[in-house]
């Protein structure tokens, strides 16, 4: 018993000495203290949520719950159209559904204030309110495609320059994306998406095929076909890019010439409907007035 008592006392004293000396022995080095001072943040762990964000989240949650109660699943085609329009936020689908639901109600409310034929105007404005978001999305998608199509030649020229300077295609893609962030933000988004997908492990061809499917632009589809042929036949990427850039420039010039040739036909309708009547009035009005004056004098 005495031996056990002495061992317990010794162990207790050892633990006490260890606890007292631990702050000194385990104290971090000056370098570690400096690193801790650098990485330590004094900001609050939680961000302050404003009232506007709370209201927006509440509206989106109500729309999401309503869609779930109505049994309306996520529309894959609508989600694809939103991606084509460049709307990639998670809440975009809920916002579009809420707008598409609120616009007909607003149309009915506005049509109820029209005193004449109220039922017709309520129905007509409700239909217009339902179709307005879809029409806006179509116009936004078409405008974005047009902007991306116009920026493709500049993007290809920069890619050729970067690859010719010794960069690989992926590194050149990152460089071109950073250079076009201000002048062509739409194509910059697509190039950043390709870069992120490749970093996540997606093959290069699949990433570019995703861009072609999202944008539905023929130039991107041709670019994917060029990359496939380059990998299949071993063609130098610089030579393939140079030829493809020249073809895109030629197509762009041909489209401009085609648009210029169509103006001769399109200008006929304004000439016939607007300009020629005014010219006839200016030329024939004095003669008609003179003839009328002559007949009046003959009558007297």
Automatic annotation (TrEMBL):
Pfam families: T2SSF. Residues 156-284 form the Type II secretion system protein GspF domain. GO terms for cellular component: plasma membrane. Its main location: membrane. It is a multi-pass membrane protein. The chain crosses the membrane at residues 6-26, 95-114, 120-137, 267-292. Keywords: Cell membrane, Membrane, Transmembrane, Transmembrane helix. InterPro entries: T2SS_GspF_dom. It is found in: Cell membrane. PANTHER family: INTEGRAL MEMBRANE PROTEIN-RELATED, PILUS ASSEMBLE PROTEIN. This is Tight adherence protein C. It comes from Granulicella aggregans.
């Amino acid at each position: 018993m005495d031996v056990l008592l002495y061992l317990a006392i010794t162990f207790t004293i050892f633990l006490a000495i260890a606890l007292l000396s631990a702050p000194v022995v385990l104290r971090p080095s000056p370098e570690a203290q400096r690193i801790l001072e650098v990485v330590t943040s004094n900001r609050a762990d939680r961000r302050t949520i404003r009232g506007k964000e709370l209201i927006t989240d509440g509206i989106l949650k109500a729309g999401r719950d309503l869609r779930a109660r109505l049994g309306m699943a996520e529309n894959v085609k609508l989600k694809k159209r939103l991606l084509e329009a460049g709307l990639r936020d998670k809440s975009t689908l809920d916002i579009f559904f809420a707008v598409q639901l609120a616009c007909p109600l607003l149309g009915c409310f506005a049509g109820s204030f029209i005193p004449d034929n109220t039922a017709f105007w309520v129905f007509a404005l409700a239909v217009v309110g339902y179709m307005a978001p879809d029409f806006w999305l179509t116009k936004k998608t078409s405008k974005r495609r047009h902007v991306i199509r116009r920026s493709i030649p500049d993007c290809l020229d920069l890619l050729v320059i970067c690859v010719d300077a010794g960069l690989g295609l992926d590194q050149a893609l990152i460089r071109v994306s950073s250079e076009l962030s201000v002048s062509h933000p739409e194509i910059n988004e697509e190039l950043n998406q390709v870069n992120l997908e490749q970093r996540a492990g997606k093959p290069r061809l699949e990433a570019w095929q995703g861009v072609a499917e999202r944008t539905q632009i023929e130039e991107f589809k041709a670019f994917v076909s060029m990359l496939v042929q380059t990998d299949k036949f071993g063609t130098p990427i610089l030579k393939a890019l140079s030829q493809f850039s020249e073809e895109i420039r030629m197509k762009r010039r041909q489209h401009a010439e085609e648009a210029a040739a169509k103006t001769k036909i399109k200008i006929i309708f304004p000439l016939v409907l607007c300009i020629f009547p005014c010219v006839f009035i200016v030329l024939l009005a004095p003669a008609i007035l003179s003839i009328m004056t002559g007949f009046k004098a003959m009558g007297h």
